[in-house]
Amino acid sequence: MRNLITGGAGFIGSHLAEHLLDHGEEVIVWDDLSTGRMSNLARCLGKTGFSYVISDITHDPAFEKAVERVDVVYHLAAAVGVQLVVNDPVRTIKTNIMGAEVTLSAAAKFGKRIFVASTSEVYGKGTKIPFAEDDDVLYGPTTKRRWNYAISKAVDEFLLLAYHESHGLPGVVGRLFNTVGPRQVPFYGMVIPRFIEQAKNGAEMTVYGDGSQSRCFGHVLDVAPAIHALVHNDKALGEVVNLGSDQEVTILHLAEHIRERLGSSSEIRFVPYDVAFRPGFEDMQRRVPDIAKARRLIGFEPRRTLDDVIDDIIASEQI
């Protein structure tokens, strides 16, 4: 089985590449290294069946030819992190929508199976907990930069579903809920690596808002195999599927727990959203996935706990 991973030098993409190689499959990583890093691929380099291309998929005519030569495409290339979304909205929108259109168009042209990575951000300001794939979504006004990422990823989903319906494209969308693990860096607002770095250095641990907002963190070693399983499940084609852990934790408790686990004396400082990001920034109070659909389709069950996530990141060489 030959695979192409856009954004494959990123945190999730590199783990997916390793998973596929471990299963005896061939992997081409395609990444422009705008946020990905070659160091993420250290365990892939030199392995039989692995190759990579450093290029922008939206401007390289060789990309379509590469899609023609593979069996499965995993589209993970996207804008990464709240800081980038807020600070560079044009890049965010163009990266997400143009990248998805180029990839889906090529996959549809050659009838390739494709997985498109989406995000829990698509649920927007929804308050029905847990979030199920068929729930209504609610966004703030377009004048709030916070929502450009969510809406652009929703467009990606619409594109895949449209290609599936109109062109018979065998594809599936995975809505990822805060996937974390080794190699995730504290840049771009990634909260667990940021807390770990701050605690290890004895620096103030900055909690945005009052810390009562909650999230669920899925280990990348649970998520990567699920992505692989979904794209090869015929019943999943044309579907949107939540992937992540349903173990909920508040951000304040997360900071306290990481501090305790590291034996750190760091103080916790609360930073208003307007200061951390920009005036009028909106955040969601809770993000909890309903993973019943993933359980039904591929027997998905998160095996690793939040402590596993934290310990694995602490032990990684990247922090």
What tags apply to this protein structure?
319 residues; 7-stranded parallel beta sheet; 11 helices; alpha/beta; Rossmann fold; two-stranded parallel ribbon
Q: Work out the helix count.
A: 11
Poorly predicted sequence stretches spanning 5 or more consecutive residues: none
Q: Report the C-alpha radius of gyration, rounded.
A: 19 Å
Residue-averaged pLDDT, rounded?
Answer: 94
Biggest sheet overview:
7 strands, parallel
Strand order of the largest sheet: 3-2-1-4-5-6-11
CATH architecture of the domain at 2-177 and 219-244 and 288-303: 3-Layer(aba) Sandwich
CATH hierarchy, class of the domain at 2-177 and 219-244 and 288-303: Alpha Beta
Task: Please report the distance between the alpha carbons of the first and last residues.
Answer: 34 Å
Tally of extended strands? 13
H and E order: EHEEHEHHEHEEHEEEHEEHEHHH
Tell me the CATH superfamily of the domain at 2-177 and 219-244 and 288-303.
NAD(P)-binding Rossmann-like Domain
- What is the third-level CATH name, the topology of the domain at 2-177 and 219-244 and 288-303? Rossmann fold
The amount of beta strand, in percent, is 15-25%
SS content category: alpha/beta
Residue share in helix: 25-40%
Overall 3D shape:
globular
